[in-house]
Amino acid sequence: MKLALPPGLSAAQLDRALRDFGRAVGDEWVLATDLDRDTYLDHFAVDESTHASSAAVAPLTVEQVQEVLRIANRHKVPLWPISRGKNFGYGGAAPLLKGSVVLDLSRMKKIDFDEENGVAVVEPGVGFYDLYDYIQQNKLPYWTSVPGNSWGSVLGNALDRGVGYTTYGQHTEKLCGLEVVLPSGELMRTGMGAMSGSPTWNLYRYGFGPSWEQMFVQSNYGVVTKAGVWLMPAPESMLGIDLELPNADDLGWAVDVVAAQRRDGLLQQSPSIGSWLRGAAVLTTRKEWYDKPDALPDDVIAAIRERFGIGWWSISLRLYGYEGVNEAQAAVIQKQFEKQTSQPIRISRWKQGEPLNPAPGQAAFAGVPITFPLANAAWHGGRGGHLGYSPVLPATGQAAMEQFRRTYDRYREFGMDYHGSFAMGERSIVNVNQVLFNKDDPEMMSRVNGFFRALVNDATEKRYGEYRTHIDYMDMVAATYDFNNGALLRANEAVKDAIDPNGILAPGKSGIWPKRYRHLRA
Amino acid sequence: MKYLRSQLLRPAMLGLLFGVGLAPGESLAAGSPDGKALYTERCGMCHQTIGMAVGILSRRPADASMGLLEERADLSAIFVRTVVRSGIANMPRMPRAEISDAELAAVATYLSRGKP
Questions:
Q1: Which uninterrupted H or E stretch holds A413?
Q2: Interface predicted TM-score (ipTM) of this complex, two decimals
Q3: Which among A132, A460, B56, B82 has the fewest CB atoms less than 10 Å away?
Q4: Is the pTM of the predicted complex or chain greater than 0.90?
């Protein structure tokens, strides 16, 4: 990839900054060859060149991070921090602002584990596999919660509000106590960590006065260098309740049933109600099923469902904890489903000491890291790519059905294969839709942008906002949060200018632009 | 198919090689990198047991023996180094901060059984 300079900087100015970075972190950790730059491109993006970096710098310690930020201020170099750079579908390692220097924290891999309280304090480079292996090696009685792509960072995933499969699956809610390098290079700790030497930094979230933890989530206000993460005590038992729903319209009642279970606390985990393509896109490619460019027709959908023995929708609920409690809860849950459907309900039971179910699809329910869901990007053959479109809905069957119909029609209109799921929160649903595409098919690629924008516009019309988005669409999504003429964005940018006057940290992240680059807003 | 890394993979091996809690980059800087251990640690998530790449490669070209790279005899070191830095199909590129040139060379030597 041709060298892309940061806006307003000459090659000589960038070079001087890189030399100073080298003095701070060691010359070998300033990664600035053509090949180095390419390794930070977003492999799954529609157009990789849009977000090319100019170099990367990879510190090992907090002190080095501080020094890198001070140097960036001196040279006015924009930095794009990544934990491990595996945020696929949302930009991977690539910076939003072309020409930014990637601040690669993947070498920072320390883990401190508080066994008594079940808290891991992790640095950004710690991946889910690292934490899982650490727990196994040390025979610690805790389970990780992992996302569908567990190659990434524990801390980074929580900072982007990623989710997992267990009762600890709302990862951002399990953060407790952050250590942050502010854009000036100053080091601070949130919550009880603001008291030096506090033993409760990672046990009580709020401290005294305003609590700033969420301020560093999906933001560009600081570089998080440590985070406390609460882990689930290894349960005595796990109980699974799985069912297949044969009709698309079953989504409505299923959402109402599960929403009530979430609200009253019967169900502590956020199950995802997913459509038929979820498994097929991982296990097969499209040409096995259909050779035309339009969306898969009903008879092909029926064939896929038959081969895999799945419904139009599948639901998997999991209960964790004491066996007797799980059994009692399961009996109530089962009765509630039986009022609505005569479909068979599959119950599975596991107890400590027994081997876990070896089926790949069961791994993440037990907190075992996985990557196989990422295989869905290869659905079309060719070089695959994907985008996530994920509006937040009220937790009602009617809202879910209307959203599903609207979205399904859009997929068909644009000739794309529907890949949707409804993740059931305590009071809301995150409707995760994957847009799978083939980068080697220019005709298909010409449809992707218009399709994605149509989806966002449809949601916005209903006043549904997205919980997370790809770097291509951050300005678009930020603009949909329009109460009082975008008062939130103005407040975010007032904070940005106060805390980062030189605008060095992740310009444009979540639509928040510092004064220096505000004219670049899309 | 078994998938538990606790049963199959890193812990026992890495516990011996690296010691518990060592940062991998640091632990290897001093001595010569162990290609097999590094392969498990940096590549195993996709290229061992139920990893993403095992599934994809096993069905292409309809030959399950393609899926587990450690069991293949057709890989050259230069090919391994190239795909790691340049990416291929569903595999994203890996930067030097994640796997250094020396570490990658050790992995490439291991997978190619010494073939350049």
A1: helix A397-413
A2: 0.94
A3: B82
A4: yes
